[in-house]
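Q: Hi! First time doing this. I have a protein sequence and I read that you can turn it into a structure. Is that right? Here it is:
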Amino acid sequence: MLQGGHRLSKLWRSPTTPLFNLSHRLLIGFKFSSLSQAKELDSLDEECEEFLPWLERKAGVKISSVLSIGKSAYGRSLFASEIIRSGDCILKVPYSVQIAPDNLLPKIKAALSNKVGTVAKLAIILLVEQKMGQDSEWASYISCLPQHGEIHSTIFWSEYELDMIRQSSVYQETMNQKSKIEEDFAAVVPALEQFPEIFESFTLKDFMRAYFLVTSRAWESTKGLSLIPFTDFMNHDGVSDSIVLFDEDKKLSEVIADRNYAPGQEVLINYGNFPNATLLLDFGFTLPYNIHDQVQINFNIPYHDSLREMKLELLQQHSTPKIKDAINCSEDTFIIKEVRSPRGKGKGLPQSLRAFARVLCCASPEELSDLAMEAAQIDGRLARRPLKDSRRELLAHQMLLSHITHLMQKYDVAIKSLAPANFPSMSKKFALRRQMAQDLLTGDLRVLKSASTWLNNYCAALRATIHCQSQ
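A: Yes, that's right. Below is the predicted 3D structure, encoded as structure tokens:
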């Protein structure tokens, strides 16, 4: 029976991470793909020419007869070596040649505390195999993994580079992620110090790279977490229907083509519907235009609000995990997606955000009581309907519009403050990361502008209604 694997993200992010679903694998270098951006093979990857034959010898079976490792403009990738038709199975990788926590040396496993998770264990495996060099049974695979200079996730950016994206939520997410890795490093060090012959020159930098390779490349399935050699060379296409499937009966992972490919074309899979914030943090690349971009915004009840405690209590009463899109008053964080229709229902602006704004604009205990009564009479969700007082409804959305306008101004300043793209002394790496920062910030600004346009139209309609009522 075939089952789709899913991303590692939820397994390794810290519990405080609020927003973006993380992903499962790393692109080698700065790479992106889409249907309109499909690239032809630039050249065969001579460094990995023997990789597939080695893996097939190790597996004892044929893994793929239609794919080869090559180099595109964006780095190492998989390309069609023969005609591929939609529905064809293009690769099968047995579980026996996938790297799972069971591959960890028993003596090291016994020394690790219960606090050490699966990701850290897989990272240790990579470090052990790398230390063994050509004596490792996985040497051919380890040698093909990207080095520090080829990784562009923001956890490897300098503080100066990170300052370019300080306006984005990715900045704080990067700090959280680095702290998580440092915590896991501290948890494994006592055990690894027992094996100086293996981990003599072991550093946080080494661990961070290995940890990132796991979190960006591994797949989670019913068999657990694993690295799947060869499959993890495949690049991302946000509109592809191809994913990694797991056949528990046959004990293998496979990929089915979702379209036709001519020889020499890059073959792609879908990592998920991720915004640039996720792609940059977890993979180290961005898309110039990402239809899945979304923006994190914070909205607070001011301390000087005389009804602050009543509002917080009301929000708390209506915060329940059983209700979809419920307001959690312990979190003042919301996600805005691009509002496609400027005069539609506002899909993209979360109902919870608009509800929060309605509660925020209440000026009396009676108004709050009315909202609580209305919620009890419908589905329990607070302030999900337009306020009966059109003026209050207008005020709520004007407050939200003002907040978003302020954010837009900040993003505009951040984008304009980026160093010129053609700055003479700019290194290739910095130029690449500057472009990623621009893709991230401009995508966020586009989302905010779409929300602003919709809110302006909604407020205009409310003003027209109020004008008619006053006649």
